Amino acid sequence: MGNNGEPEDALGALTWQTLSDHTVVSGDEARRRLERVFPPFVLPLFLFDGEQIMALATDHSADRVEQVKRLLNLTPLEALQERVVIARRAARREALDGVGRAALEQAELALAQLRAQLQRVAERQRRQAREVKELDERVAVLNAALAPYRVRTVNEDRAKLQGQLEELITKARKDARALAVELPVQAPWLFNPTLLTRAARALGEQASGVEHEARAESLSRVKERLDRELFAVAPSYAAPLNHKQILFYKDRLRQLIDLDAPQPDPDQLQLSTAERQLAIRRLEELAGAEEVRARWLKTIRQFNEGRVRLQALHERVEELAVEREDERKRREGLQKERDELVELHAKARAELERLNQEQKELQGKEAAMVGEVEAKERQAATTDAAARRADLAERVEGLLKGLVPLAFRRQKDELEGARERAPARAAHLKRPHRPRGVL
């Protein structure tokens, strides 16, 4: 408000000016007056009742100003919706008694507090987002600062992988030695041709009571199992198991179990029950050998994985070596350039010192020459002054000799002229003269 109770804002001033003639007797009259002053598209006056319009002339609190600003920014549709909300709120308040009205006011106050709290939470979230962004920027700066130390990390990984590979190699060698010891014990028939023959005969005896197709299928499965489960390990296990011997046994078994070859007569097989049971037990021991082989294959797989990782590590080491070589060449180039610059700087400094020495020598020579010139100038000036004095004396003497007759002649002429003018002057002086100042 101003000094005379007038509002300071434009809206309040215009409202105050409209209602200042003290002829407004009701809110409707004030509404009609303001509608004549404010265009509908500037101020949606239909949102206000008469009492609110009257309050605009006197109430200029922060809440009232914010309410007016908000209403001024509403679209027509939003203004109609706001009007409906105001009307419903007024109807509810009129319908409520004193207790209900107080409860409604408390609820509105709680809602306002909740909105303020939500606003504070949003502000805190925005502040935290700014802090997170700052932390991200700091982390980026730290990552950039730690970039030169990545080579150390690669070297550490290389040492770690090298240790793991050595452990795998040691474990593989240990398993190979154990397999070389266990396999002859668990499957001794692999190293005994007699047991192999008896095992084949036992297989034929077991298949004697079965149809030819079933026997052929069974023997085919045995053959496939032997080829797949037993002899597949021969190339990988060649060193500790005598590769030539295993290939010999493999060919012998194929000859014994070949389906195209004639099958032996079961009646001609002279195998005791103990030998038959031993052959069957030897075949069952193949499962134990399979477990050993599984461990061996696992070791081989781990060894291959370690070899792949070592190969990748070697490639990375080569890349690092190339990078280090490039860095060394660049460093050598920079060192060479620096040495050249140092050498040029030394040459330039030596040349500068030589030039300074020459400058000092030239300055000394110049000072000496200046002294000689000044001495010669003083000597020449002395000689010239004496000559000029002698010449001037001669000239003065000649002038004096010429001026004396001239002066006598001029004085004589002046005396003769004065003598000639004397009579006229005397006659002039003798004439009567009128006093000065008399008419």
Descriptive notes:
Helix 1 crosses helix 2 (27-37), helix 8 (193-206) runs parallel beside helix 11 and helix 8 (193-206) crosses helix 12 (273-284). The two termini are 98 Å apart. Among the domains are: 10-95, no CATH class; 188-284, no CATH class. The chain is 81% helix and 0% strand. The protein is built from 13 helices and no strands. With 439 residues, it is an all-alpha fold. The chain has helices spanning 10-19, 27-37, 50-56, 62-72, 76-95, 98-146, 150-186, 193-206, 212-230, 238-241, 243-257, 273-284, 286-430.
Inertia-based shape: flat
Q: What is the overall pLDDT average?
A: 62
Topology as H/E string? HHHHHHHHHHHHH
As a whole number of angstroms, the C-alpha radius of gyration is 66 Å
**Helix percentage range:** over 70%
**Would you tell me the structural class of the helices and strands?**
mainly alpha
Strand content: under 5%
**Count of β-strands:** 0
What's the N-to-C terminus distance? 98 Å
Unreliable residue runs: 1-12, 40-47, 209-215, 229-241, 256-271
Biggest β-sheet: count, sense, barrel?
none
Number of helices: 13
What order do the helices and strands come in, and which of them pair?
Blueprint lengths: L9 H10 L7 H11 L12 H7 L5 H11 L3 H20 L2 H49 L3 H37 L6 H14 L5 H19 L7 H4 L1 H15 L15 H12 L1 H145 L9
